[in-house]
Amino acid sequence: MSARVPKNIIRWSLRFCSQRFPRKQRNFLNTECFSTHPVRLWCSKQNQKCLSRSLACSERFYSQNRNHNEEMDEINNVEQSFPTDVTTLTQRPRLSPFWNHLERCRSPSDVLDLTRMYSPTHHQVSNCLTHMWFSTKKMSEEQRFYELQLMFEHPEFDKFLQRAMKSVQFMRNNDITYALLSLVKLGVPQRSYVVQTFLRACQEKLSDFDEKNLSILASCLKQMDGPNVDALKEGMRLVVEVSLPGIKNVVALQTMMNLLGKDSPKDLKQKLERKALSMSDQFSLPNSQHMIRTMAAMGFYSKPLLHVCSKRIAENLHSIPFTRLYQVLLSCKELLYRDSHLLTEISEYVASTLDIWTNKQLVLFLSVFEGLVFCPSALMEAYAGKVMENPNALTLKDLLCVLKVYSSFNYDLRHRRQQ
């Protein structure tokens, strides 16, 4: 009974603060005011968050000038953690020719052309948005920019957004979260009517979201800001705390930990730590790498959890590319965590595979080891020999950085003077 009470309270408070969706908008990329009345989200400690309905900007633009490649890693992790659910977005029962036509669409404009031929159902609207986003993922940056410009200038785009706003209250939770994520990824202004409407739908149904929906929403909110988003994040903290015992997916847990961030209460961080430790036997190598980065993002130092992840990483160094290994070291530096076994293993591994790394990568390794105040003897010895064999391979900037690292550790190279 005790578990039901807080969940019912959260559901009541979230639904109490939700109001009817605006139905009559002239332009769904404009950001005019919904209403002058704020919406309140009541939290368990009687602190209130107001969801402001006043939206300042009235511009219509087609891109927010973000690098899509930088945002793909995390959402790809979320997608891979629910493989069956993601694939079913385009593998529905073929009750009409619509599905066959949708699969053949290769750009957002193709999908919009299709919506002119067929009137999509509430569920199909979400699938259209998802397909529009997926169709741009493998494009080059220049092609993506061009296709998104065509999408925003397409005569059917406003009509499609109007249909999406009318459909949102009839969509399933899974469709709502994927549709919102697709809108954000496509560069639809976050303060537009359509995005704010989907945010309010998430707010209204938040207490009914399962771990998959919460994980997708967390990935989406991480890229957004504003008073409505802040209040929704606060609501998510309440829901996550209640639903934490039922979370069974490691990536979903990490995504929500990342969203909760450094401002999370200490007791909630400790609950997340206990939950993560209880799932540590499920950690894959990518899970272990991402957990250390997540803890750095939360500003939370958990020695038992770091030890579990470090052990897994040290055993599989040969499978980790440079970028992820470097990010792990940066996260350890941010957490002031120095596992001598892990750092020694990394130093010896890089030294034994010196030829596969570029000079820039090796300099970055040395620099981050200096930041960790750990002397990577094996790496420094091997790299000194490489530099002496081909001193012209280093730029002046790299050479100064290398000299700084060696001098900071007072590393003795007298036995190499004759070389």
TrEMBL record:
The keyword Kinase applies. One of its GO terms (cellular component) is mitochondrial matrix. InterPro entries: FAST_kinase (IPR050870). Keywords: Kinase, Transferase. One of its GO terms (molecular function) is RNA binding. GO terms for biological process: mitochondrial RNA processing; regulation of mitochondrial mRNA stability. This is FAST kinase domains 2. It comes from Nothobranchius rachovii (bluefin notho). The gene is FASTKD2.
